[in-house]
Amino acid sequence: MRLIKRIRVTLIVIVLALVGVSYLLPSKAEVSRSITIDAPAAAIFPYVNSMQETEKWSPWLSRDPETKLSYSGPDSGVGNTLNWSSENPQVGTGSQEIVESVENQQVDTALDFGPMGTADASFVLQPEGSGTQVTWGFVSELGMNPMSRWMGLMMDNWVGGDYERGLENLKALVEGQG
Domains in the chain, please, with CATH? Predict the structure, then answer.
């Protein structure tokens, strides 16, 4: 009986330590990847300023070709919205809406993953030599949930590779147009 009591106390101490440490972890998860595309910003901007155009280079749609997509709002710019639904847990269900758009410079979007939470994403286009550096960024506020904070540590590993593949797809698409 004494052994069981020690095991319980040890488990409680471990759980409390993990919860306590979680509040020392970052309160937001951030992921960012960049690539230089040999094209002017004006050639790239249409592909990041329209949810319909992101279909052409998205790193996620190849995971589930059966993903259901629907669009609302204008065809591009602020208010352009994508809703998606997939049985594949790596694709999931959610929506993404363009909330700010500065021509040939930046596009900001709001993501809603339903019960999985919300996030903000952005595309920043900056001249670099004869090309354009495209930076795809992601920020998610993790709140006070200890589990979310621990998961936030994994976000770069989970999303970073997808961002790299997406940017490579975008580069191939844009440079192939020229």
Answer: 27-177 (3.30.530.20)
